[in-house]
Design goal:
32 strands, disordered N terminus, 6-stranded antiparallel beta sheet, disordered C terminus, 7-stranded parallel beta sheet
């Protein structure tokens, strides 16, 4: 394996660690040993789903949801990297997804366990590196608790792993944020914020420059911060603004992408650089007009989609997702809800490029879900990961904080929904917050009156920007009468979005997988 030697002319390098992994199914007492001969381990390439190769078990718990794949095991992954550490360089490890309870080591340095199988994690591993350049990455995934999701969850390093190097005055992970506060066909304002940290032992002078590059690859404008002093070990947030005339607006029909090229210069030397794609578009959800994109009303024709690729398992191959999304768009669809967990970052990159609107969902259940035992310790960090990681994607038009959560209609459920929604807004105030509500509310749906249904949903209007409804179509009129200023979104149904139209409740139904013809339905004349 050739050594990775960061080029001084390139302040940031990013390498996908797809090949040359060794995999062992089951416990292994010596898996962390640097001198272990692992040639008898299975040679695998990421993304990798070990569950898809497990024997079928018709009697397994949750078998129907899990494809009867018996994957209640521990799996170990090892990979060597020839990385020569250099003074003045930082090294970061990013794991896009590992199912689940993944514990990570670099040269025996324990980076901790992440219970969620869907969370992306980033670690600064500079201080874990060996001087001889022989670096060992080890990941242990633990599915023995068998607390699988209500769908095929798979197992292992099913998303990609990356190694990034920067200078020692660098952008904090996920700190670059691009927003477009004012958008029209004539002009757009662009705001870029970023946080820079000085990892050096001494302070120095720093400048941050941003070049906005248009969809055709031409520079649209340049902005640069004033020179500022940054003491050792400290971080500073900067904000730069620019105006773009006659912007190319992002939409499903024309998914134009810009790039914000952010450069960090410390003591006259480039120490970090990040190319952040973004789109220029405006969104609005109101009870009067429904969903508007770039000032124009449109019906969202969409589906809920899980994180697997069918017979391929959950191994997240970009080519598989691209084929699936292109087929979906060819059938007339334009919107996806990521049911019911954070998606692969590569999936959102494709939605940006292909033009697919996304409702980005954080959780299925809350305290009573498959992560219930870890909920109190991890919900805030998992939710923050989702928003900070995904907020630059123009495809993302709404955040969902949960699906069919427990104790619907109870005061503690409203309190928790408000807490999660406010945390999302603190990280991204530019998109609405919703959640998917199931129709039965504690299993007594058949005995509840419409008035009781409304009473259980209405208190959420003060916490959510959109009331998300799973299979509630027969009660839309009653909800609208009770909450006339709150837009409703059908988070699971054939009717993805609806609004009041000419005195009736108009719903334009479309199931792209079954019927490419739009069929209008009107209820509550």
């Amino acid at each position: 394996m050739s050594p990775m030697r960061p080029d001084d002319a390139s302040p940031r390098t990013e390498t996908a660690l797809d090949a040359a992994w060794r995999f062992h199914l089951g416990e292994h007492a010596d898996a962390l040993r640097h001198d272990l001969d692992d040639t008898d381990w299975q040679d695998v390439r990421l993304p990798h789903d070990w569950a898809i190769d497990c024997p079928l078990d018709p009697d397994m718990e949750q078998g129907k949801a899990q494809g009867f794949q018996r994957r209640a095991h521990v799996g170990w992954y090892r990979r060597r990297v020839r990385l020569v550490a250099q003074a003045g360089r930082r090294v970061w490890l990013r794991i896009d997804g590992a199912y689940r309870h993944a514990q990570v080591w670099v040269n025996g340095c324990d980076l901790g366990v992440r219970p969620s199988g869907y969370a992306t994690r980033i670690h600064d591993v500079t201080d874990c590196l060996r001087d001889d350049g022989d670096q060992l990455l080890v990941v242990r995934c633990d599915n023995t608790a068998h607390d699988g999701d209500r769908w095929y969850s798979g197992a292992g390093l099913y998303r990609r792993v990356w190694l990034t190097t920067t200078g020692d005055v660098a952008l904090e992970p996920w700190s670059v944020v691009v927003t477009t506060p004012e958008v029209s066909d004539r002009s757009a304002s662009v705001t870029v914020t970023a946080t820079v940290r000085n990892h050096r032992a001494a302070g120095g002078s720093v400048t941050v420059a941003v070049e906005l590059v248009g969809p055709e690859g031409k520079t649209a404008t340049v902005a640069e911060s004033d020179v500022f002093d940054l003491p050792a070990g400290e971080a500073k947030a900067i904000e730069l603004q620019a105006q773009l005339p006659r912007p190319s607006l992002w939409s499903p029909e024309s998914p134009a992408l810009y790039t914000a090229r952010v450069r960090v210069i410390a003591d006259a030397t480039a120490t970090d650089a990040l190319d952040q794609p973004f789109g220029i578009r405006s969104i609005s959800f109101t009870a009067e007009k429904g969903f508007e994109l770039n000032g124009r009303a449109r019906k969202m024709r969409g589906i809920c989609i899980h994180h697997d690729l069918g017979a391929l398992g959950v191994a997240s191959f970009a080519a598989g997702w691209e084929r699936r999304l292109r087929t979906f768009k060819a059938l007339g669809g334009d919107s996806v809800r990521t049911s019911h967990n954070p998606p692969d970052p590569a999936f959102l990159d494709l939605c940006d490029r292909l033009g697919v609107l996304v409702m980005d969902e954080a959780f299925d259940k809350w305290r009573e879900g498959n992560s219930g035992k870890h909920w109190e310790s991890w919900w805030k960090e998992d939710l923050e990961m989702l928003v900070r990681r995904d907020r630059n994607h123009p495809c993302v038009v709404a955040w969902s904080i949960g699906n069919e959560v427990e104790r619907q209609g109870e005061s503690d459920m409203f309190e928790l929904a408000g807490k999660l929604a406010e945390h999302v807004r603190s990280l991204d105030p530019t998109r609405p917050v919703t959640m998917g509500l199931e129709p039965h509310c504690r299993g007594d749906q058949w005995s509840l009156s419409v008035t009781a249904k409304v009473a259980r949903v209405q208190p959420l209007a003060k916490h959510l920007d959109l009331i998300g409804l799973n299979y509630h179509a027969q009660w839309y009129d009653a909800y609208h009468l009770a909450m006339p200023d709150t837009p409703l979104v059908a988070t699971e149904d054939f009717h993805f979005y609806s609004h009041r139209d000419n005195g009736s409740w108009a719903m334009h139904a479309r199931n792209p997988w079954l019927d490419v013809e739009e069929r209008p339905y009107v209820v509550g004349q």
